[in-house]
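Lecture notes, unit on protein representations.

Consider one protein chain, 503 amino acids long.
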Amino acid sequence: MTKYVAAIDQGTTSSRCMIFNHAGEPVSCSQMEHEQIYPKPGWVEHDAIEIWARIKEVVHSAMEKVGLIAEDIAAVGITNQRETTVVWDKKTGQPYCNAIVWQDTRTDAICNDLAGDEGQDRLREKTGLPLATYFSGPKIKWILDHVKGVREAAERGDALFGNMDTWVIWNLTGGIHGGAHVTDVTNASRTMLMNLEGTEWNEDILKLMDIPAQMLPTIRPSSDSGIYGYTTDHGPFAGQVPVCGDLGDQQAATVGQTCFSRGEAKNTYGTGCFMLMNTGTEIVHSRNGLLTTPCYKFGDEPTIYALEGSIAIAGAVVQWLRDQMRLINTAADVENLARMVEDNGGMYFVPAFSGLFAPYWKSDARGAIVGMTRYLTRGHFARAALEAVAYQTREVLDAMEADSGVKLHSLKVDGGMVSNELLMQYQSDVLGVPVTRPKVIESTALGAAYAAGLAVGFWKDISEMRQNWGIDKTWEPSEDETPRIDNYKMWKKAVTRTFDWVE
């Protein structure tokens, strides 16, 4: 009898496999980091072959830890770093080049050319997205235009494109031996090539970007009882398990937090920071710099949409303090270092390493540290870095409330940074609303598991999933209004110093 659902969470800095029981509790987890490749300023790449190798290792490890075999797993769900672009040879399974990561800004000139006289919002009505380096479509075009032989292979039908979900599913279900070349509506929407209405590839945009349609995957529901494919006897599960759940990481976290009602919202603190608000079956076009995106599609039910505020750098700033600046030894050290000081000492850190995402969408912005004096210490750097995450979230929340007309009374949070209690308290102080952390903070993996389990009847409906959600801790805002008024005003001033840096 199958007792568990597995989720493969392919993230920006690591891949992991988590196995969940019917109560939505993790029973096993294995995780491995992969290399971050920076060939030039503004370029960020991953080795897709290395990532697939890590996935095989973490699946095997997670299964072995609790003595499970393929027959114990009811279904497999995939969640992934969105927009990160892989193009590979379907005959050999080899990528033509490194994957171009969502943070990469090399397509800035392509986006400007595509915008032309009509501007950055030229495709927003159809796709919900501004023309920005963030999305997959311009990255595909860059590979076709710059990597020798890829365009010819694509026109022959030999080159396949996928975000990381497609790459993982193709390999899981057989790879060169008939692997399923599919994606779901949430990941397809992040290419800038899919119509929001109807959720199919837009032929006019494909022509605009000169992308052959035959290299694109088939768009499927996020939870699909039709099954994308089955794992193979020679794959990491060493047996045949249905692969039938697929959600981009932020949509997966929304599902994992059971934000199934219109107006419910969550914020995920990972490499970047991403707030999503469920808008139901209504497509709400943003007037305040947010994205309009599918939230999920379960089987034959209508697509559910969301407003999204995307922040490029959140946990990545802590990684930068650790790896590049050597101010801390581990990511967890940042909280203790920040607690050495009472405030930011007047310093504001705007980590626009990859430009500014929501609500500004300025790819020519770059990071800035302002307000520095001789008074400042390492502790102030740590504190300012954490505060930057809270201020960026406030900017997104303000935009979301303006677009939706919904006033949030509390915020559900998840992701690796929510274990940082100093940040969570400051987040509540800056927003002026309670911040709630669930018992299972790995909502991204849980959401992928829910999508897969729902497809095979492991969970019968969303009400069963709602019953699994529980509160671990809630932070209430301080009566001191300084963080949400005075400090936030100074942050907004600091952000303007990053504009138009790249000429």
